[in-house]
Design goal:
The chain has 80 residues and is an all-alpha fold. It has a domain of 44 residues. It is built from three helices and no strands. The longest helix is centred in the C-terminal third of the chain and has 30 residues.
Length: 80
């Protein structure tokens, strides 16, 4: 197994772990506390967390694809 394969497996496992963490609903903690006064920002973003994470994945995939494209162009220039 070369370094690229090991990095790809590690990165894939990290993305899977992050994706599962986002999908699993928050488990109640013990003791359960009742919020008294929540800020408006928390209420607005609570339902949008999954959407923001998916947009981050799309941006990250774009960055990785550009880096891979630039790497393949660089490797083609070095070959005779």
């Amino acid at each position: 197994m070369n370094a690229k394969t090991a990095f790809a497996i590690m990165l894939g496992a990290l993305f899977l772990l992050l994706f599962i963490t986002v999908l699993v609903p928050d488990a109640p903690t013990w003791p359960v506390t009742i919020p008294t006064n929540t800020a408006a920002g928390i209420v607005m973003w609570k339902d949008r967390t999954f959407e923001v994470i998916l947009q981050g994945f799309i941006i990250l995939a774009g960055v990785f694809s550009i880096l891979l494209l630039l790497g393949s162009i660089k490797s083609r220039k070095g070959a005779p």
